[in-house]
Design goal:
Elements: E1 5-14, H1 27-42, E2 53-56, H2 62-70, E3 86-89, E4 95-99, E5 105-112, H3 116-133, E6 138-139, E7 143-144, E8 156-163, H4 165-169, H5 173-182, E9 185-188, E10 201-206, H6 214-240, H7 243-258, H8 264-280, H9 288-297, H10 300-307, H11 313-328
Antiparallel strand pairs: 1-5, 1-8, 2-3, 3-4, 4-5, 6-7, 8-10, 9-10
Helix pairs in contact: 2-10, 7-8, 7-11, 8-9
């Protein structure tokens, strides 16, 4: 498994034939769609779906909603409006179903590392189970019907979260973005469309959903991701050999192990440096999984939810520092 790939995601957009798209639904219509989808998921009776948690956005605090985005379980757009929206989560948080986002259903499967085929296999099985209980809007020529034309066809977005510190350092991301668009792919920030990359983390995903099979889209994404990984590794070898870069690895780890106050942005930068140092083979006494868990757990809203109380900015910085020292000590 390539350590440059932090996360794999498969997302399927589906709509119910009987109802207008969410943007045209009344409040009562959204509530009805919510109930229909939740009942269908509950009735799947599959080992793939275990101990579901159902969250209605209207019942969540602002921090709880933002934490869903920080944990890659929901989109920023989804939490922007609570009316008639709910999210279904599996106990292990590898499956989420956003209800009444842009489409009636956004089924998402997350897998750690680089596992496009594994994530798609689970998503496809769950899609089949839901199809048995729901009547999806489908056209023989166009495929699955979606509110946005860019999702027509398969309705599938496959993506991988890549850690690209060397390519970012070389300022190669702009060139890469231009090349990817020509290949039917797009590069986005850490939390998807309209977000900035944090800690040199980028999402690469397919743009084309019409006139191409799910298998072809996944193969294309895999091939391009592998090329980017090779570019990153080659650039990393050259950069990591310098004494200045090695010093940055150790200095970042030293700060994180002794810090008492630290902002989210600084923590992300330092953790990215440490992650780079682990992948280069320079830092040997730090666990990569620990760093990856910290990258999620130190986010502002996730910290507040974990603490169970409101925190000021300085209090968050202190709690964040304590958590980092505890995990990396």
């Amino acid at each position: 498994m390539s350590n440059e790939v932090m996360l794999t995601r498969i997302r399927l957009a589906r709509n119910l034939r009987k109802y207008p798209f969410p943007s045209r639904l009344s409040q009562s219509g959204k509530n009805e769609v919510c109930k229909v989808i939740i009942d269908a998921v509950k009735n799947c009776n599959s080992p793939l779906i275990k101990e579901l948690e159902i969250l209605y956005l209207k019942d969540l605090s602002e921090a709880q909603k933002i934490a869903l985005v920080e944990q890659h379980l929901a989109s920023p757009e989804f939490i922007s409006d609570t009316a008639g929206r709910a999210i279904i989560l599996s106990k292990d948080r590898t499956m989420s179903v956003m209800i009444n986002e842009e489409d009636h259903i956004r089924l998402q499967i997350l897998k750690k590392g680089f596992d496009l085929e594994g994530a798609y296999d689970i998503a496809d099985k769950l899609d089949t189970l839901l199809d048995e209980n729901l009547d999806f809007a489908f056209d023989e020529k166009l495929g699955y019907l979606t509110q946005c034309p860019t999702n027509l066809g398969t309705g599938m977005r496959a993506s991988v979260m890549l850690h690209l510190p060397a390519l970012q350092s070389n300022r190669a991301i702009g060139r890469i973005a231009g090349n990817l668009s020509k290949l039917g792919l797009t590069i986005r920030g850490t939390y998807g469309e309209g977000t900035e990359p944090k800690g040199a983390m980028y999402q690469i995903s397919n743009q084309v959903t019409l006139g191409i099979s799910e298998k072809s889209a996944i193969e294309n994404l895999r091939n391009i991701a592998e090329q980017l990984i090779t570019q990153e590794q080659n650039a990393a070898k050259r950069i990591a050999e310098s004494l200045e870069t090695k010093d940055k690895f150790y200095r970042s780890l030293g700060i994180l192990r002794s810090v008492r106050l630290i902002s989210g942005d600084e923590a992300m930068e330092l953790l990215s440096n440490v992650r780079f140092g682990i992948n280069s083979g320079e830092l040997k006494d730090v666990d990569l999984d620990t760093v990856d868990r910290l990258i999620v757990d130190i986010q502002p809203a996730t910290l507040i939810v974990g603490k169970g109380e409101k925190l000021s900015s300085s209090e968050r910085d202190a709690v964040r520092a304590d958590l980092i020292r505890e995990r990396l000590g």
